[in-house]
Amino acid sequence: MSAKDGLGYSIWKIFVALFLLTSLEVAWGMYLREPRWLLWTGLLGCALVKGLLIFMYFMHMKFERILVWSLILPTPLLIMIIFLFIRPDISRNSLRDNPNGAMLNSQGKVEIMQREFHSAHEAEPAAPSAK
Amino acid sequence: MSQAVAAFDPAHDAPAHHHPIYDYDSGPPVHRGKFAIWLFLATEVMFFTGLIGTYIVLRMGTPIWPDPEDRLNVPVTALNTFFLICSSATMVKAVERAMQGNRSGLLGWLGLTIVIGSIFVGIQAYEYVELFHQGKLPNVDIFFSTFYAMTGFHGAHVAIGVLWLICVWIAALFGKLPQSKYMTVELAGLYWHFVDLVWVLLFTIVYLM
Q1: Are B55 and B150 in contact (CB under 8 A)?
Q2: Which domain range does residue B162 map to?
Q3: Is there a contact between A119 and B70 if contact means CB atoms under 8 Å apart?
Q4: Which end of chain B is more exposed for a tag (fewer CB within 10 A), N or C?
């Protein structure tokens, strides 16, 4: 096996990097779930590095001409536009008075929603305060 | 060739009913197939961006989101992710063999890619059957509806990719893919790597976060 294959890079080095990053991700995601900000940042970082390795080497973009790049370059801009459009819809329910939401029942009275999911990593919910 | 065309003057050399011959190519300066597949992949990026964006809106708007490992079989899917990464590596080797005009090598590596891709689809089908038996259907809650939407569309892409690779493999088997037509393999490979790339992101977002 040559250090560099006919495609201009060593495919097995990329493969090993992808394998190690996936193993790290799985271990991190299954056993080190706190703190959440670190979990999310680390996992997204690993995923983006893996995606970049596949994009640059397996999809050969590192060696492509500017015309091929110009076909794919508008998509990050379009992705940003999509996320700017949906940004107002991304709510933070945990910051509300009634984090689980509230709705009008059939009698026209406000009914505070009960917690639905119970995560193994979270405490039992407190009883909703009457307003 | 170029000199011959340049020496050819239509006004004097060609009969009046002949079309003039031009010494340039009106197409893009890359292979047309590669131009087309990248345009197609750009639309696919937007498709999956729509799905992931919707997932983010729904997840952030849902009061409590369950831990994926409480509801999904993460170790089995991690193994499946490993299979898909392996299939991308074998696909690269298949493209390399096609560029070298090595037919038997192409058949071997492409066949291995097809087998591993089929294993991925099979394990995902097994995961769905297990979830169905536990009553975890798409209409149970927002977690499972987004889970099935994203992994289902991706699984369909993988299944189409496997069918595409099988067609390329059969063409190679019957000697229809000489070295000059290696681009047929490379185009299928670009689609296959894209499907792998999308799964790398989906696995992290859906199964681990």
Answers
A1: yes
A2: 32-208
A3: yes
A4: N
